[in-house]
Amino acid sequence: MLQPSPKRSNRRGKRILLIDRCQATREVRTAVLRRQGVEVHEAEEISRARFLWQPNVYDLVMLDIRRYSSEEMQEFYEQIRAADPRQRIVFLTGPPTYVSRTWPGEIASIDASRGQWAETVKRFLAAA
Question: What is the residue extent of each domain of the chain?
């Protein structure tokens, strides 16, 4: 069971846009984030995410890149970057690796192979 972090108050008021076509993983990710005090807006499709996303609204955009075409993701990424170059974006590739926000120009990963998704989320939120 997840225990509240001592720095939990720093996460209150954070907003994340989570884009994931798989309902099961979207629900789990949303539950973990909400337990951390984060406001989560969910989108199953990138078209819905385009509707929800606006500059200066979200602290972080999390996109599961396994479930969408590379063209669709690249277009959405470029749309966000053009409107708000400072928007933080995390590309989820599933356990154990998460692609950094420097994609597509550079790839760096964070190992989360020990079931520490909540810890990974805490690091993302601390950076947001």
Answer: 11-127
Q: What is the mean pLDDT of residues 68-86?
A: 91
Is the domain 11-127 a CATH 1.50.10.20 member?
Answer: no
CA atoms within 13 A on the CB side of 82: 6
Q: What's the rounded Cα separation, in Å, for the pair 22 and 103?
A: 22
| Range with top average pLDDT, 26-30, 47-51, 68-72, 106-110 | 47-51
pLDDT of residue 86: 94
User: What does 76-95 look like in DSSP terms, one character per residue?
Assistant: HHHHHHHH-TT--EEEE--T
Q: Is the separation of the CB atoms in 80 and 61 below 8 Å?
A: yes
Residue 66: what residue type? R
102 phi, psi to nearest 5 deg = -80, -5
- Higher-confidence residue of 47 and 11: namely 47
pLDDT at 8: 40
Residue whose token pair is 């950076």: 127
State yes or no: pLDDT of 37 exceeds 70: yes
| Tokens encoding 86 | 């400072």
